[in-house]
């Protein structure tokens, strides 16, 4: 388990901003995500949520500011980051010739997971994929593909779980299971950073809600308070 210096935030962003050419995708902001907590990023497409997630995952470098994981600059090529940070992106690519089970076996092999078959069976059942273990990606629905990407994050060790709109393409029952999953992750001490369009999901699982608009933070606080402020603003 990765320890954060002095018991502080596992993920810490300070003065982080990102510019692409002339476009300011993200204005300077601070963000802490601690173990056993969930921070939800909320906003429309183009608000800066995905840019912030890429920086938090070490997949992009801020134009200014610092992004730290366990007190160290975050970089997805850092072995500590690869071992401790699980990312569920927006419909990440699958290998067309590998079955659902083989995808998960590949993840457990990469992370030297003990008793991988037990973990895989458990996660397949949890994600509603038990009957699709031998299926190829092309035969899955978009919701089942999303469940596969979630499953791949759940069969590996993780201290920080980063999710980019994981509720997309899930039916209402699957979204309820997702909310239960994220609450269980918090209970296990995982730090969760979630970008979402669903206010209901943010309110159900997040301790803190950060609303972005054109790369700027326009609201920040407990989800119920933030949603009330947004409603008054509209």
UniProtKB/TrEMBL annotation:
It holds the Pfam family ABC_tran. InterPro entries: AAA+_ATPase (IPR003593), ABC_transporter-like_ATP-bd (IPR003439), P-loop_NTPase (IPR027417). SMART domains: AAA. One of its GO terms (molecular function) is ATP binding. Keywords: ATP-binding, Nucleotide-binding, Transport. It comes from the Bacteria. The lineage of its organism: Bacteria, Bacillati, Actinomycetota, Actinomycetes, Kitasatosporales. Residues 11-234 form the ABC transporter domain. PROSITE patterns: ABC_TRANSPORTER_2 (PS50893). Belongs to the ABC transporter superfamily. Transmembrane segments: none annotated. This is ABC transporter ATP-binding protein. Gene3D superfamilies: P-loop containing nucleotide triphosphate hydrolases.
